[in-house]
Amino acid sequence: MAVIAVANAKGGSGKTTAAVLLATELARSGSDVVIIDCDPLRLAANWADKCGDGRILAITDATPSTLPEYLRRLHRPGCDVIVDLSGARDVLLALTLGLCDLVLVPVQGSAMDAAGAMQVIELIQYIEANARGRINRAVVLSRVNPLVTTRSLRKVRDLLLLRGMAMIETPITERGAYREMFEHPGTLYTLNEARGRSFDKAMVNMQAFVRDVMARVELGGREAAGPFARMCYQHAAGGRG
Ligand SMILES: Nc1ncnc2c1ncn2[C@@H]1O[C@H](COP(=O)(O)OP(=O)(O)O)[C@@H](O)[C@H]1O
Ligand SMILES: [Mg+2]
Q: What is the pLDDT of residues 56-111, one digit of tens each?
C-alpha cells in the first residue's frame, strides 16, 4: 500500500493531472486506488466517478479530523491512496504531508510554479524539524514540451537540484491526451480503445512516470512513511488487537 500526496501551492501546476495518471496506471497494475480529492473543485473526483474503471474510487469529504481514519481503513495490501491537494496552505496539507509515503510536487518550468513548490518544501522541512521524522518527497517537472527544453525550465530544474530536491526522472510531458481525459470520461486506456485514437506517446510517458514514482516510494521504504504515519497506523493495530 502506498499513500502518495500531490502538492504545490500554485494552482495549475499539474497536480490533478499527475494524480489521475497515477490512479490510471496503479489501477491498471491491479491495485484498488482511492483518490482523496481535497480540492473543492473536485476535478479528480469527477474524473474518477466517470472514468469507468471500477478499481478507482474517490473521497471528497476528507478533513483534518477524518483523514487519519480514512487512511487507517484503507491501509491494506493492494490498495493505493492518492491525495490530490488544493493550493491551500492549511492544516489538511500539513497533516497529509506528515502521513504519506511520498509527496510529489509537480512543477512547470516557471518561476511562479517553483515558488509554489518551495512553499510546500519549506512546510515539509518545518514538519521534519518539529516531528523528528523524514518526509519522502520529489519534484516532477510537468507540462514539459517533449521536443524542446526551454531556458526557464532549465533554470527551474537547476534551482531545485541546487536546493537538493530529488527529481522524478521522467517528466510529465505536455500532451493533448492529458486534457482529453477530463473532457471525455475515461482513462487513457479506455479512451484509446473506444475512440480509436492513438495516445501511444502519452501512455508511454504515463507508464514511465508512474514507474519512477513507485521506485521513489520504494526507495523511501516503510521507515520513510511520514512522521505522523506511525502514530496513525499503530493506533489502528492497537485498536484491532
Ligand atoms: N501534461 C499536461 N499536458 C497537457 N495539459 C496539461 C498537462 N498538465 C496540466 N495540464 C492542463 O493544465 C491545467 C491545470 O492542470 P491541473 O492538473 O488541473 O493543475 P492543478 O491541479 O495543479 O491545479 C488543466 O487545464 C490541465 O488540463
Ligand atoms: Mg487540481
A: 999 999 999 999 999 999 999 999 999 999 999 999 999 999 999 999 999 998 88
Ligand 1, residue 172: give the atom nearest the CA. Answer: 1
The pTM of the whole model exceeds 0.70: yes
CATH architecture of residue range(s) 3-232: 3-Layer(aba) Sandwich (3.40)
| Spacing of C-alpha 89 from chain mean position | 16
Residues 6+ apart with CB under 8 A from 193: none
Q: Which ligand has an atom closest to residue 10 CA?
A: 1
How is the chain split into domains, by residue range?
A: 3-232
**Of the candidates 40, 33, 1, 29, the residue with the CA atom closest to the CA atom of residue 19:** 33
Give the ligand at the shortest distance from the Cα of 181.
Answer: 1
